[in-house]
From TrEMBL:
GO MF annotations in UniProt: CoA-transferase activity
Keywords of the record: Transferase
Organism: Mycolicibacterium agri (Mycobacterium agri)
PANTHER family registered for this protein in UniProt: BLL6097 PROTEIN, SUCCINATE--HYDROXYMETHYLGLUTARATE COA-TRANSFERASE
Protein name per Swiss-Prot or TrEMBL: CoA transferase
Coiled-coil zones: none
InterPro entries, per database record: CoA-transferase_III_domain (IPR050483), CoA-Trfase_fam_III (IPR003673), CoA-Trfase_III_dom3_sf (IPR044855), CoA-Trfase_III_dom_1_sf (IPR023606)
Family matches, as Pfam families: CoA_transf_3
C-alpha cells in the first residue's frame, strides 16, 4: 500500500526541481502524468549520455511517471489539459511567472474546473518581488543566495556546490508543502496555491550560517571541508588519500587524541585544550593532525576510529561510492528494464518504511508513451486521437513499441 494511491498529479515541470518532486510523489503512490511538448518534451531529454536516442539523465528523476504529449498552445490541447485537470488533485509547473496564465492553464483557470485543486508553482525567484521575471536555474540561485561565496577553499574562485542543491531544495520544499496542503484539504475541503522559489528554498537551508550572521554579523566564507563552528571536523590527508574526522565534542576529542592519533599530551596543550582554543589555532591543528595521518593509509585510520568510536570515514569518488559495500547492502542501486534504453540502473528511494511501499515503480516513459492510453481513459474517441496525432497536437515518439509494453 502506498499512501498517495488515488492522488493524481498533472506535472508540467522540466529539468530537475519539479521532476524530483513528482518522482517522489509518484513513488509514494501518486499517479503522475507528465505533460510534455510534442516533438521535444522536457528540456532535459536532450542531455547526454543517450542510449538508443533516450537520455539517461532524464530517466533518473522521471521514472515511475506517465508521459502525455499535448500542444498546450493549441485550443484543443488546452481543452484536453483542463479536462484532465478536472479530475486531478495537483497541478505543478515550473514555467517563468506569467507563462501558465498566457497558456490559459494557471491556478485561476484550473480552479474553474476543479475548485479545490492544489496548484504548485516553482520558479527561480518566485511569483513576486523585483526579480520575479528573471529566468533562473540552479546556478543563479546558488549565486544570489550566497552559496558560491561560502563553498570551496579560502582565496579560491566562487564555487558551485557539487550537486544542483537549489533545485533539489526547491523540489524537497515542494514535496512537504504539497503534502501539508493535501492534509489541509482533507481537513477543510479547500484547495491551495503554492509559490516556491529556488532562492528561497536554498536560503531556508542556511541554518548555521544564518545563526552566525544574525547573532554577530559573521558572513560565511569558504572553509574547504572544515566545519564553521567546530574542529576537528574536516577531511585530512592520509598516505593514500583523505579521511574525514568528526571529533566535534570534548568526549570525542579525547578519544581521538588518546586512542587514534596517540597524542594524549594534546589534552593539556594550550593550543588545543578546549574548543575555542582549537578554533583559534585551526590551521596549526590541521598541520599537526596531517603530520600524523599522512603516515598511514586511509583504511588504517578508519579502522582505528571505528575501534575508538570516533566518527570518520574515507573520502570516496562517486564511482567508489556507488560500488561501496554498505551502499549496495542498503539497496541504493536499482536495476530496471527501459523499453528503449534496455537494462539500466537508478538510485533507489532513500527511506525504509516499516509498512509503506516506497519504491521505484517503472522506468521513465518515452516522450508521449501514455498519450493515447491516458486520453482514452478521459473518454476521447479513437478517431479524434488519430486526427490529433496526425495534426501534431498530440504525440507519441514510439507508437511501434506500444504493443511490447502493454
Amino acid at each position: 500500500m502506498r499512501p498517495l494511491n488515488g492522488f493524481r498529479v498533472l506535472d508540467l515541470t522540466r529539468f530537475l526541481s519539479g521532476p524530483y518532486c513528482t518522482m517522489v510523489l509518484s513513488e509514494l503512490g501518486a499517479d503522475v502524468i507528465k505533460i510534455e511538448q510534442p516533438g521535444t518534451g522536457d528540456d532535459s531529454r536532450r542531455m547526454a549520455p543517450k542510449i538508443n536516442g533516450e537520455s539517461y539523465p532524464f530517466a533518473m528523476p522521471n521514472r515511475s511517471k506517465r508521459s502525455v504529449a499535448i500542444d498546450l498552445k493549441s485550443d484543443r490541447g488546452r481543452e484536453l489539459f483542463l479536462e484532465l485537470a478536472a479530475s486531478a488533485d495537483l497541478v505543478i509547473e515550473n514555467f517563468r511567472p506569467g507563462v501558465a496564465r498566457r497558456l490559459g492553464i494557471d491556478y485561476d483557470a484550473v480552479r474553474k474546473v476543479r475548485d479545490n485543486i492544489l496548484y504548485c508553482s516553482i520558479s527561480g525567484f518566485g511569483q513576486t518581488g523585483p526579480y520575479r521575471d528573471r529566468p533562473g536555474f540552479d546556478i543563479m540561485a546558488q549565486g544570489i543566495g550566497g552559496f558560491m561565496r561560502m563553498t570551496g577553499h579560502p582565496d579560491g574562485k566562487p564555487t558551485k556546490v557539487g550537486i544542483a542543491i537549489n533545485d533539489i531544495a526547491a523540489g524537497a520544499t515542494a514535496i512537504y508543502s504539497i503534502l501539508a496542503a493535501e492534509l489541509h484539504r482533507r481537513q477543510t475541503g479547500a484547495g491551495q496555491y503554492m509559490d516556491i522559489s529556488l532562492v528561497d528554498a536554498g536560503l531556508a537551508w542556511t541554518v548555521w550560517e544564518s545563526g552566525a550572521y544574525f547573532g554577530n554579523g559573521e558572513a560565511p566564507a569558504p572553509t574547504g571541508t572544515r566545519h564553521r563552528r567546530s574542529t576537528p571536523y574536516q577531511a585530512y590527508r592520509t598516505a593514500d588519500g583523505y579521511v574525514t574526522i568528526g571529533a566535534n565534542t570534548d568526549r570525542l576529542w579525547l578519544r581521538l587524541i588518546n586512542d587514534v592519533l596517540k597524542r594524549p599530551d594534546w589534552a593539556d596543550d594550550p593550543r588545543f585544550v578546549d574548543l575555542p582554543a582549537r578554533m583559534a589555532n585551526i590551521d596549526e591543528l590541521e598541520r599537526e593532525i596531517e603530520s600524523i595521518t599522512t603516515t598511514l593509509p586511509t583504511s588504517a585510520w578508519v579502522e582505528r576510529m571505528d575501534a575508538a568510536g570516533v566518527p570518520g570515514g574515507p573520502v570516496l569518488t562517486y564511482e567508489e561510492a556507488l560500488a561501496d559495500p554498505h551502499v549496495l547492502a542498503r539497496g541504493m542501486i536499482v536495476e530496471l528494464e527501459h523499453p528503449v534504453i534496455g537494462p539500466m540502473r537508478t538510485i533507489a528511494p532513500p527511506t525504509r518504511f516499516s509498512d509503506i511501499d516506497y519504491s521505484v515503480r517503472s522506468p521513465a516513459p518515452w516522450l508521449g508513451q501514455h498519450t493515447v492510453s491516458v486520453l482514452t481513459e478521459l473518454g476521447i474517441d479513437r478517431d479524434e486521437l488519430e486526427r490529433l496525432l496526425a495534426e501534431g497536437i498530440l504525440y507519441d515518439a514510439h507508437p511501434e513499441l506500444q504493443e511490447q509494453v502493454q
